[in-house]
Every structure is written in structure tokens, then in C-alpha cells.
Amino acid sequence: MKPSDISVEFSYDGTEYLVEGKYSPATPDVHYLRNGDPGQPGDPAEFEVHYIAADDKVLSNDEIDKLCENEKWLDAAYEAAGDSMASRAEDAAEARADEIREERDERRSGL
How does DSSP classify residue 109? Predict the structure, then answer.
């Protein structure tokens, strides 16, 4: 899946973080194709971090590198990014459903 620009806010260990970067959600394993051929492995989620602020303080590259070595912090960042992407998809689906309803109503009123 194509990476998306993302900005997420979350709390971890009493600190508020703002993280910006590119996020690609995980893709599932496909064990077999429809025709029975072998499938392919999925891909893990990826989050390319470009910017981090902690309690409104912009972190240096060295501070970002150290923070990204903390697996629990990374888990929190990935979870926030995944939640944000899911929310985006849900909002887009709702907006499209609204457009379809409006188009339908316009067609009905023109009859």
C-alpha cells in the first residue's frame, strides 16, 4: 500500500507526543491465490518518522533516534498511526456514502 503522510498525537509515559511522517499499514499474508497457486507473505506496518515534538519541544535527530529504540514507545506510535489511518478511512467512507445519498436524492427529486 502507498505510504500516507500522517500526523498523530498520543501520550506515552506521561508525555504528550506529536509525530509526523509517512505511514504504510500492514498487509496480511495470502496463503493461496484463488486459482490454488501459492500466495505471498504480507508486509509489516512501516512508519517513517520525520518530526517529533514531546510536550511541545521539538526533538533533535539524536533524541529521535534514542526514542525510536524504545520498543514500547514505538508500539504506542504505531498504534496511534494505525488508529489515525482507520479513522481517515472511516471518514472517507462516510463522506462517500453521503455523496451517494445526495446524488440519489437529487435523482429522485427530479422524477
Answer: H
What is the distance between the alpha carbons of residues 64 and 74, in angstroms, rounded to a whole number? Answer: 11
pTM: 0.63
Q: DSSP label at 42?
A: -
The partner residues of 22 in beta bridges, in order of sequence, read 5, 48
**What nine digits make up the cell of 54?**
514531546
CB 3 within 8 A of CB 46: yes
Q: What are the tens digits of pLDDT across the range 1-59?
A: 677 888 889 999 999 999 998 888 888 899 998 998 999 998 888 888 889 999 989 99
The x, y and z cell numbers of residue 45, run together, are 506496518
> CA–CA distance from 104 to each of 12, 13, 67, 90, 92 (Å)?
46, 49, 51, 21, 18
- The span from the CA of 29 to the CA of 73, in Å, is 26
The per-residue pLDDT for 58 is 93
The secondary structure of residue 38, as a DSSP letter, is: E
User: Residue 106 carries which DSSP code?
Assistant: H
